[in-house]
Amino acid sequence: MRDRLADAxxxxxxxGIKRLPEPAAQALGRxxxxxxxxxxxxxxxxxxxxxxxxxxxxxxxxxxxxxxxGMRSYLRYWMxxxxxPAWGTERIRGAFKTQDFEHLTDAIEGDRGVILALPHMANWxxxxxxxxxxxxxxxxxxxxxxxxxxxxxxxxxxxxxxGMEVIPHTGGASFGRLARRLRAGGxxxxxxxxxxxxxxxxxxxxxxxxxxxxxxxxxxxQTGALLLPVTLWYDEPPVMRGRIMPPVxxxxxxxxAERTAVMTQALADHFAAGIAAHPQDWHMLQPLWxxxxxxxxxxxxxxxxxxxxxxxxxx
Length: 315
What we know:
51% of the residues lie in helices and 15% in strands. The protein is an alpha/beta fold. The radius of gyration is 19 Å and the shape is globular.
């Protein structure tokens, strides 16, 4: 019943919200965000706990205000996502402004593949649609499996309508498809701040050990592709901003596991800098650090690796 309800709600969002005038959709998003924030839902409490690590000196009142801004940012993402298929080309081109753009264009002009790795910040769907529209460059991405299957199919259809090649998160099979695209000089985009498997890489993240996927670093080593970290944040509507960092170098020495650890730590450091600068736009409403995951798993009676609710994923 819960799965059917979730599917119905998403269907209503894509079917109805995109028909709303822009100011009405923005106002609806703020009302939903503020309602969840006032009710202190589980997602709000988890967001505050995560933000407490990002802003360790913040007191309770500051964290509350930060989580309110975070929920508004999160609902802005959802309102934009539901409306994005109806946006025209010029609207998409004008909705994203990025710094250090030359790192991406230089990489694309080379004869090597390119991996863009980013955290759950702002609206990566919009950044992807902008790449397809403004740069006329298609790319592949991985999405986690959602239940029910109809909901997963909706996310796949949505992202494919934006020009993305969508690959289900299936371990080795998805890795192989991404590797083939990269060896052919193609582009891959991966959300890479949360491990969805049992084989992530330990990194230091805001002073504590966390686990992040090693897929981006492994793909770069195996295919020779360039690995570029990206962070996103919101400006006043309708503009989103981003920054593209220089490629993460592959260490010249060490085992593959050691090189992967070094490169994944470099990604974590870039992500942490971007999140610290714009904490309200980090949409992490799930447990990330091992201690939190263990407590969540014990309370839920599972392994703590539930889906993100955004249909994103990594290799």
